[in-house]
């Protein structure tokens, strides 16, 4: 479970008020205009940014003062998810051991994760020798071996072609179901939210709104902030 109560984040001329309750098995898409704070929200959850006031709990534990590496969270960004000097296998193995010294059981876990994302045949290739979509699959495999229950996605598939982007979203949906993950996806694409998520977290006017179902969000009438954001899209 993710719980933020009376959260307030301030940075120069930007502020964000957060009261948020996300259930453990929820797939939430985060929508909002440019500069509304979508990526900032993920950074707060992951521990890269700190609330000025309020509380943040993950899996029932208070995260005040807890380093990003110690939180039950994995995060995939749009870029820079792989290390160019390591092959595919070792990029995934980093999720288990920064030293890359693995037991036989741990190495088997890496191989299983690569098989699950369809990269077994690329295990010894370098990142420069595989496609952008395959590099993002490496990042997904690393999430699997880390075995964290919360997955944060900051527009990780934005640079991919539409067909491949949908394929990756479907993979995340499958992995979420198989592993009982909470997924929070930042996207600029309402169609991605409709395809993958079951709830929407909407940001507008410095406020993070509580999640509502996808159906409710896209059928909502009379909400000027949502109507302005969606425009003629719907």
Describe the protein.
- By secondary structure, the chain is an alpha/beta fold.
- It folds into two domains: 1-72 and 149-157 and 183-234, Rossmann fold; 75-147, no CATH class.
- The protein is built from eight helices and eleven strands.
- The protein has helices at residues 38-46, 88-93, 104-116, 132-146, 162-179, 190-196, 214-219, 224-230, and strands at 2-11, 14-22, 27-32, 53-58, 61-62, 73-76, 150-154, 182-186, 199-204, 207-208, 212-213.
- Strands 1, 2, 3, 4, 5, 6, 7, 8, 9, 10 and 11 form an eleven-stranded mixed beta sheet that branches.
- It is globular and about 55 Å long.
- It starts with a strand and ends with a helix.
- The mean pLDDT is 93.
Helix % is 25-40%
Oligomer: single chain
CATH topology of the largest domain: Rossmann fold
Task: Just name the CATH architecture of the largest domain.
Answer: 3-Layer(aba) Sandwich
Which of globular, elongated, flat, extended, rod-shaped describes the shape?
Answer: globular
What CATH first level of the largest domain would be assigned?
Answer: Alpha Beta
Strand content: 15-25%
């Amino acid at each position: 479970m993710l719980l933020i109560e009376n959260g307030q984040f301030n940075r120069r001329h930007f502020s964000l008020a957060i009261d948020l309750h996300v259930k453990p098995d929820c797939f939430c898409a985060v929508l909002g205009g440019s500069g509304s704070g979508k990526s900032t929200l993920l950074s707060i959850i992951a521990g890269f940014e700190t609330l000025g006031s309020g509380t943040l709990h993950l899996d029932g534990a208070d995260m005040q003062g807890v380093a990003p590496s110690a939180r039950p969270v994995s995060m995939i960004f749009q870029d820079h998810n792989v290390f160019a000097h390591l092959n595919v296998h070792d990029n995934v193995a980093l999720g288990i051991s920064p030293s890359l010294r693995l037991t036989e059981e741990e190495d088997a876990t890496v191989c299983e994760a690569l098989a699950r994302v369809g990269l077994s045949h690329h295990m010894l290739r370098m990142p420069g020798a595989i496609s952008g979509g395959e590099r993002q699959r490496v990042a997904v495999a690393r999430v699997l071996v880390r075995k964290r229950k919360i997955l944060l996605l900051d527009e990780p598939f934005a640079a991919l072609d539409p067909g491949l982007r949908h394929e990756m979203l479907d993979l995340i949906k499958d992995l979420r179901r198989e592993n009982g993950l909470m997924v929070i996806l930042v996207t600029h694409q309402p169609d991605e939210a409709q395809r993958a998520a079951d709830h929407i977290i909407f940001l507008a006017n410095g406020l993070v709104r509580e999640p509502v179902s996808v159906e409710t969000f896209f059928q909502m009438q009379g909400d000027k902030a949502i109507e302005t954001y969606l425009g003629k899209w719907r």
